């Protein structure tokens, strides 16, 4: 008789990457400190601003992530909600694409996974205009077989629906996927859907945990 508690997880064949904070630079506190130096003198003040601006990716920004509102609408809503000048909010919204700079260490990890024979996909909470920008400026089709942007499917992580959509689109068993994401709530949601998942901080920190795969 098999003892399920002693069974090891299936060795993942498919690696699924988050984008912001994993493949592309995204640190809202330092971002706002750079874009709004008159409002944030340091990263600590930037973090406080980020809480109000992005609402932990719920509220106004969550609707933008899900493709339910466009950039002018999210800009107006944030300005109305916070009292910040519309032009300053628009400055931040427009500056996000340039903030999403690729992280070379993660690109090397992608290349190592591919050389090891893994299939690679992505699952990213990303508003449509930013998704369009990334597709224009980076070789996503070379790195990944396919992927899901929240803004195009009108649902975002950690909603279970987006994991169901991704599994169906990738046409792979859930248990064959290893998901790399920098938000604990998304890791919990992925595991609840049957995916394996690892919390990402940096590529260097992750490497020892995935050494058996590369």
Automatic annotation (TrEMBL):
This is HAD family phosphatase. InterPro entries: HAD-like_sf, HAD-SF_hydro_IA, HAD_sf, PGP-like_dom2. CDD domains: HAD_sEH-N_like (cd02603). It holds the Pfam family Hydrolase. The lineage of its organism: Bacteria, Pseudomonadati, Pseudomonadota, Betaproteobacteria, Burkholderiales.
